[in-house]
Amino acid sequence: MERLQGIAVSPGVAIGEALVLDNEGFRIPRRFLPRDAVEEELDRLHKALESATSEVERNRDRVAAELGDEYAAIFSAHLQMMRDKRLHEEVEELIRTRHYSPEYAVSRSLRKYAKIFESLDGEYMAERANDIFDIEKRILRNLLGMRREELSQVTSPVLVLARNLTPSETANLNPQFVMGMVTEVGGPGSHTAIVAEGLGIPAVVGVGLFLTDVSGGDTVIIDGDQGQIILNPDEETLARYRHEVEEQRSLAAKLETLRELPAITTDGQVVQLLGNIEFPHEVTQCLERGADGIGLYRTEFLYLGREDDPSEDTHYEAYSGVAKAMGDKPVVVRTLDLGADKMRMLPNPEDERNPFLGLRSIRLALRNRDLFRTQLRAILRASVHGNIRLMFPLISTMLEFRQAKMVLADAMEDLEEAGVPFDRDIKVGMMVEVPSAVVMMDRFVEVADFFSIGTNDLVQYCLAVDRSNKDVANLYTAADPAVLRLIRDTVNAAKAADRPVSMCGQMCGNPMYTMLLLGLGLRSMSVTPAAVPEIKRVCRSVSIAQCEAIAQHVMTLENARDIKTYLRDELSGVFPELPV
User: Which parts of the sequence belong to the PEP-utilising enzyme C-terminal domain (predicted)?
Assistant: First the structure.
């Protein structure tokens, strides 16, 4: 049994079979063979070994001819390892006696040797471990037919363990079978964290190098409350965590009873609880959990993994379906919020050293107006099917907002001339996720119909912390006093101008912050569907006066650590059983 510590980004406990994705995206399956298939699979192994060996021989000969024998020595060393009789016998024994698939047997054997090299001192030994990983990948490529496994192809419950998960990979995963996620890299605001939270599955990121310690099919526990993963747990640990899973189910059943009840405080203040969705099918989860609408409909999934632009009809179908499903309840559609580095259909930026400060979100949309206009036309067309509202992301200047409104006006004019119906009075709002937007709130309230505070980016830009970097993850916190002042000032400015203001970042989906946010004057929150019942429970258990006293005290504290400790204590006083 091995216990590893990472960063908790989505709560809960999951127990299950590991699906390991290495750096090249291979799924290393633990598949057991029927007895009559053993000889056929051994033959497949031998052919893969022969092909892999031939590849290495060709590489060695080419390098030797071009650069000399000393540069080809690394390939000679690889050949020596690949031809090792003891290794062949060990892999074949796992296939014959344990009926492992060749992929799993190869991975199991080679990773055992790699781990031995990694445990030895010296740079030379570490390089030998890398050689073994290279050999493993080469053999697996031949066994798997040079194909990458897609998360969308998973057909049984698994826990995904990976170096990292790209936005396109997470966009294509099958939420029916992915029960938890762990990555070696990443921070609390990474895409993996956001997607896991949206799915309501336990997730831990920033664990560090650990994939060499696990093979596909191994039993793994993800503790999303404590930020831990446990590889190959013993029976005692399994029993304890199974008990925790049962307690989670029991609490979920209790929260289910709140579905039809309003989020109203003990002194009668109604709180609007909306849902964040990443994909259209998640609208069902919002309805099932009693959300008052969709406060953030991310539209990036339409662009990820594509070589061409999504058509206007593709956009329209995605938006109109959600609008129809929600009926009269509000649906806030956020326009494209990706960086140019994530969109294959656009040329890569020439000097994009820091994508978070580069060509992304509204900047990218205004630079590619045809792409932007296509999306806006589709949103407008869908607006006749429900209560759709339009929101622009990452607005940092008045000019950006006015330019975006001009493109919207052009799209309206196009539809009007074509006789296509749309909501001419559609509400147009903006995300508040850049400090400059907070500073200019007294001007933005004159032009925007509503606001939504995006804490994921607001924390990042306020504290100058890359939210996907595990090395500075300890600095990334919504509890920092500077962040709280920005939130307070935004809420106060919006309320003074009688403009609706909500919050859609991860912060408001954490019950630890609910009383503080209510105390700061927030009366609308958009959270992941899975978090709606828990946040509703907190709202229905406290008074505004109680929350205002908490907020008043918090604003006197000097650091995030003291603020978190105080908020945890206050929440524990209301709900002792909640993990905080």
Answer: 254-542
For the chain, residues classed under CATH 3.50.30.10 are 2-27+149-250
- CA 416 → CA 328, 380, 443, distances in Å? 24, 11, 30
Token pair listed for 97: 């006696």
What fold does the segment set 2-27+149-250 form as a domain?
A: Glucose Oxidase; domain 1 (3.50.30)
pLDDT of 382-405, one tens digit each? 999 999 999 999 999 999 999 999
Residue 428 tokens read as 């147009």
The response to whether 534 counts as a known ligand-binding position is no
Q: Is 334 annotated as a binding residue?
A: yes
Predicted structure pTM score: 0.72
| 456 annotated to bind ligand | yes
Q: Is 298 annotated as a binding residue?
A: yes
Q: What is the DSSP string of 224-264?
A: TTTTEEEES--HHHHHHHHHHHHHHHHHHHHHHTTTTS--B
Nearest to 529 by CA among 247, 274, 179: 274
- Residue 346 per-residue DSSP state: S
Distance CA(416)–CA(419), nearest Å, equals 5
Torsion of CA 363, 368, 371, 374, to 10 degrees: 80
Distance CA 107, CA 117 (A): 15
C-beta atoms surrounding 120 within 10 Å = 11
Catalytic residue set:
191, 504
HSE-CB for 143 with a 13 A CA cutoff: 25
Residue 197 assigned ligand-binding role:
no
Q: What's the CATH superfamily of 257-574? A: Phosphoenolpyruvate-binding domains (3.20.20.60)
Structure token digits, residue 156: 């049984």
Q: What gap in Å lies between CA 176 and CA 524, rounded to an integer?
A: 30
From residue 267, how far is each of 114, 133, 229, 332, 543 by CA, in Å? Answer: 62, 62, 42, 29, 5
474 marked among binding-site residues? no
Q: How many whole angstroms separate alpha carbon 3 and alpha carbon 22?
A: 20
CA 144 from chain center: how many Å? 27
3-state class (DSSP) for residue 537: helix
Type of residue found at 463: L
Distance, in Å, from the CA atom of 437 to the CA atom of 217, rounded to the nearest integer, reads 48
Label residue 163 by pLDDT band (50, 70, 90).
confident
pLDDT tens-digit map of 416-435? 999 999 999 999 999 999 99
pLDDT in tens, 47-101: 999 998 998 888 788 767 766 776 677 778 888 888 888 889 999 999 998 888 8
The answer to whether domain 35-143 has CATH 1.10.15.40 is no
More confident residue, 522 or 85: 522
Both structure tokens of 239: 């029993």
